[in-house]
UniProtKB/TrEMBL annotation:
Domain AMP-dependent synthetase/ligase stretches: 10-368
InterPro entries per the UniProt record, alphabetical: AMP-bd_C, AMP-bd_C_sf, AMP-binding_CS, AMP-dep_synth/lig_dom, ANL_N_sf
Similarity-based family: Belongs to the ATP-dependent AMP-binding enzyme family.
Name of the protein: 2-furoate---CoA ligase
UniProt GO MF annotations: medium-chain fatty acid-CoA ligase activity
Protein's organism: Modicisalibacter muralis
Domain AMP-binding enzyme C-terminal per the UniProt entry, residue ranges: 418-492
PANTHER family cross-referenced by the UniProt entry: ACYL-COA SYNTHETASE, MEDIUM-CHAIN ACYL-COA LIGASE ACSF2, MITOCHONDRIAL
Amino acid sequence: MFDLGRSFLATVERRPQATAISDGNQYKSYADWYADIQSVARALGRLGVGKGDRLLVVMQNRWQMATLHWACQFAGIIVTPLNWRSTMSDIGYCIEDAEVKAIAYDTSAFEAVSACREAQSLLRIVAGEVDDAGAVLFDSLLDGTGETILRAGAEDVSLMLYTSGTSGKPKGVPRLHRVERAAALAHVAQNLYRHDECTLGVMPLYHTMGVRSLLSMALIDGHFVCIPKFDPKATIEAIEREGVSNLYLVPTLYHMLIEHPEFSPSRVKSVDKLGFAGAPMSAGLMARVEEAFKPSLFVNHYGSSEIYTFTIDQNASRKPGSSGRSSLNQCIRVVRIGADSPDEVVPVGEEGEIIADMTGDEAFQGYWRRPDADEKSLKQGWYFTSDTGYFDAEGDLFVTGRVDDLIITGGENVSPVEIENVLSMHPLVEEVVVAGLPDEQWGEVITAFIKCRETLQDETLDGHCIDSGLARFKRPRRYVFVDEIPKSAVGKVLRRVLRSQQQDAAQPQ
């Protein structure tokens, strides 16, 4: 099987003059970019970073970060990307946990890296306008010709992602070349990508969605348009300027795009295919997105850093809330919550924990030096996701949340997602998140956090829930109107933050 370096080389030989990457006004063909990538791979070796070493990269989505990613694939270095919003303690933890050999960063991470003691003892590579006298300038790595670097094989580790760490310390997720390539090929197939596709490189390259966009474009001679930091106005301009043909975003970014005053369908008319992942898309938002783009393909991906895609639905608006069926490289089951065996499968329609087959082509082999995490999540050859869901009578999977997000009220298990879908259909509801808050009588009380377009009353929303056929025990007993819904750096809703804020507000002063 090809490793990723050979996969990229095949594209260079096939279409050397095709546009590979752009970053603002800078454009590079595959031939030109390959020359840069090889130069960087050679330079990393001269600097003492070799096969099997970990290179920590803390950058926004700029062409230098994408170049480092590919240089590592040729050199056999394990690229270890980290959120550019990371604190000095985050960076220090990752350096020690991954036993990092060198760090590359840009202005977005300058303060954190400068304050990080562990980083100061490493080889440092800087891109952009960074004032670090002890660092190597990225531009100095672009030294021209030399030996061809092609040192990785399909069984070598390609990269190590770090999970978001919503509970406890982040976990390293090493992924092999063959696993990354299989995931990228499946991404191409499941999104019906063709040669010369152009995608928006806005999902961060420290996130599995960003990496998948980068790799998939290289496999099909496509154009990766770097967007260093998501900004709706700049993103709309990039789509229009570059003729972007497909988008792969989290639902939050779609929301921000279509709600921006400068958005219009005519400005994004080049976009033909849509994909989303990272979080469920409410029925209300899905309808607005489809109306805004009128895509020929609208794909819902459900997956994780550990196993890229679990399921897909290539006609997401057909059945809002559905995540479809198993992807090309996967088999999934729904088992009893708390089960230790993959055989404790629940009946159709019953909610349980979603698990995935670890023998799938896209699966990782286990966490980096975390036997405790392996013991919790890897059981009898299956990955226990901690996500809840159920299969409907037609065989489609519905993901209802996290095991920890399940609301237990009056002895009943209630999924937040079902309630969010109902409330999102009200025309004056812009965003909604549902969570359970502690309650002496009910155990947890169903609470809806609402961002409104105009002033709304509890009674209006309650009536909407009744008219929509939502079961009475699932209706929110409390509505909280908020100015913003808190989200992570990649647009995931932070329910725990809303719960914490509301509980803090309820405490006596």
